[in-house]
Design goal:
Elements lengths: L6 H14 L11 H40 L4 H10 L6 H10 L1 H12 L1
Length: 115
């Protein structure tokens, strides 16, 4: 059986890993094994935090809507319940956007939710 040399393939693989780890500190950006280990961890964090970002933004939108609704003297859960009963289908992102940038339109939504 012929001997297989991995010279080109190995160099390509090493360069790819070291390029991805180029912003890391110390040996993590210079040594292949350290860089590979570091990238494994960073990939785990990136995957986890892509999910977490969605959760954090939803929490932010809810707190913005809650603050705007409470300023009008109504609790958040009553507001959301009123919107559901009135068949207003706006998601929390859009409600937060209205609460921050269009207070008059948001005030009308509060009236709809009350009635």
């Amino acid at each position: 059986m012929a001997r297989v040399k991995t010279n080109v393939a190995r160099r390509k693989r090493v360069k790819k890993v070291l390029k991805r780890a180029s912003g890391q500190w110390g040996d993590r950006s210079k040594q292949y094994l350290q860089a590979k280990r570091s990238l494994l961890h960073s990939d785990v964090y990136a995957y986890r935090d892509r999910k977490k970002r969605k959760i954090e933004f939803r929490q932010l939108w809810i707190s913005r809507v809650n603050a705007a609704v409470r300023a009008a003297g109504m609790p958040y859960n009553r507001f959301m319940e009123g919107l559901k009963k009135a068949k207003v289908e706006l998601n929390r992102k859009m409600l937060a956007e209205l609460a921050v940038n269009e207070p008059k339109a948001f005030q009308k939504l509060i009236e709809v939710a009350k009635g």
